[in-house]
Amino acid sequence: MKEKTSIQDSIFNFFNVLFFLAFTFICVFPFYYLFINTISDNNLVQRGLITFLPKGIHFKNYLALKSINELGRAFGVTLSRTVLGTALMVAASAFIGFLMTKREMWGRRFWYRFLIITMYFNAGIIPAFMTMQMLGLNNNYLVYIIPGIVAPYNIILVKTYIESIPYELQESAMIDGASHWKIFIQIVSPLCKPILATIAIFGAVGHWNSFQDSLIYMQANPKCFTLQHILWNYLNTNTNLGALMSSGSSGNSLGEAVASTLLNQKVIKYTISMVTAIPILLVYPFMQKNFKKGIMLGSVKG
Hints:
It is built from 16 helices and no strands. The chain has helices at residues 7-38, 42-46, 60-64, 69-99, 108-117, 125-134, 152-163, 168-175, 180-191, 193-209, 212-217, 227-235, 241-244, 246-249, 253-261, 265-297. Helix 4 (69-99) packs antiparallel against helix 10 and helix 4 (69-99) packs across helix 12 (227-235). The two termini are 42 Å apart.
């Protein structure tokens, strides 16, 4: 039998749906606004006449970005650090989180508490810079990867998730003579896919959006600038497109096409911002199911 909905419930549901529709619009509109401005007539964009609907639709702005050499290089740096850094972080978080659940681990409580302390206390930017300098990581691509391999918060999430798995599974494997390593690879890791997908999203978004480490540690190595660093430079400079593309583009038909397409700094900012945001936005829908399950189960215990 279908339960009859009261007037109060109907009113509540109406305003609930209305609120979430408004909230969704607020979240989605900035990206929509960026997109319609990148595909609209550049003169109209420059005059601020594009608000809700695109006008004079074209995709020349995106094609023109290919001729900016530093943008392609920055995209490669960002993509590689995102893939490599996330993979190493997930592997380290999974293994360390598994070790933290083993009672026979030497000094387990001490190391776990020591790990938690690092979440609340840090030396600051200058000591961190000096540390990286002493380790030879300044102006080195590895500065993007090594510091982020051990992520305390993600380790805690994995540890909590593993503790929610029945321990009898591990005990039965031990009785059959399985080592800790074999238990971790063949039993624990497959069951931890939801939480590993969750921390993978955290890591990927963090690496993709990070620009402060590039800004601080790559001052003498512009070849390792990240995509976000390049975007930040464009957002904080008055350099016009002609100056940006004077090397290698002037004097040919491509340079003239680009110069006539991207006429102003606003269009450059909008287009690069959109290119920067799209890849990471495409990742979440494929991992949403595991993300929801992992974050809920991984936060049950402290």
